[in-house]
Design brief:
6-stranded antiparallel beta barrel, 293 residues, 4-stranded mixed beta sheet
Length: 293
């Protein structure tokens, strides 16, 4: 009886596992083609939703299963499978893919899904307008490149600027993304931001790193869902922190020194006396020249 009571207590304290309802809204005339071993796994592409959370496939080698009670939240998959840099990168791919403004169409979804697979696998993936081996390849190159550019574009990133102490340096952001960034406090400078320009006044000399930070928050949770023998899916593209770093080389302002001109005339505080001496000197030089003639 005592053992039964202990078992019941343990069961009571085991956290319940929430079952997930997975749905797929299939897209007409688009098929993903994933090389697995010596075969091609081909299937119709669709928007994935896990309990209405928009999701991507994280494992292209397996098929998805829809319905309830098949998928469960997997809180360790990302950290066990990827490095922090990998997690950050695929999270940004998802955000700048379908999640980004004016990107809500099948081309950006295809491009983001393909980039995620390419980053987590060494295989080449592609989409066609019919199931493999038929159909024409759908070119996603420009959409993939746009996503990559959005990830990599940061104001002043890895640049170096020269400045002088207590003189204001004005630098202009050509990427037009400075508006999205905050300035991390730096006691070595007085810095302010106006439109796409930074106004920087160094307070002392030296080589300094300035950090700009962008926080993207879209009220989503980073969630991964797993099902035995089926592809793992992730609701990703959320709460991204981006940093841009650049260097300022600051030198002290050079003090301009006026050249010193020696006065051949005797020093005196009497200006008339100096004038008389000067006149006598020129007179003597003139007489000497006449005598020489």
């Amino acid at each position: 009886m005592k053992k039964i009571f202990i078992i019941c207590c343990l069961l009571f304290f085991i956290p319940s596992i929430k079952a997930i309802n997975v749905e797929v809204q299939y897209i007409d005339n688009i098929y993903s083609n994933r090389p697995i071993g010596d075969k091609i796994l081909s299937g119709q592409l669709g928007y994935i939703y896990a309990d209405k959370n928009f999701a991507y496939c994280l494992d292209p080698s397996l098929l998805i299963i829809t319905g309830e009670n098949n998928y469960h939240e997997d809180q360790t998959y990302l950290t066990k499978t990827y490095t922090p840099a990998d997690i950050d990168y695929i999270n940004q791919i998802a955000y700048y893919g379908y999640e980004y403004e004016n990107h809500q169409n099948q081309f950006y979804y295809m491009a983001a899904q393909e980039l995620i697979w390419e980053h987590t696998s060494t295989k080449d993936f592609y989409f066609t307008d019919q199931i493999f081996p038929n159909g024409n390849v759908i070119d996603t190159t420009k959409y993939k490149q746009e996503i990559i550019d959005l990830i990599n574009t940061k104001p002043f990133n890895n640049q170096t600027f020269n400045a002088t102490t207590n003189e204001e340096l004005i630098i202009t952001d050509e990427t037009n993304t400075l508006k999205n960034y905050d300035i991390i406090k730096n006691d070595n400078f007085e810095i302010r931001k106006e439109a796409n320009q930074l106004f920087i006044k160094p307070l002392k000399s030296g080589d300094f790193l300035i950090i700009l930070e962008q926080n993207i928050k879209n009220n989503k949770n980073l969630l991964v869902y797993s099902a035995p023998n089926h592809q793992t899916i992730g609701s990703i593209g959320t709460n991204i922190k981006k940093q841009s770093e650049f260097t300022i080389n600051v030198k002290d302002k050079m003090i301009e020194q006026k050249p010193i001109i020696e006065d051949i005339l005797p020093k005196t505080n009497n200006p008339n006396h100096r004038k008389n001496i000067s006149s006598m000197l020129f007179l003597w030089i003139g007489l000497y020249c006449l005598k020489r003639k």
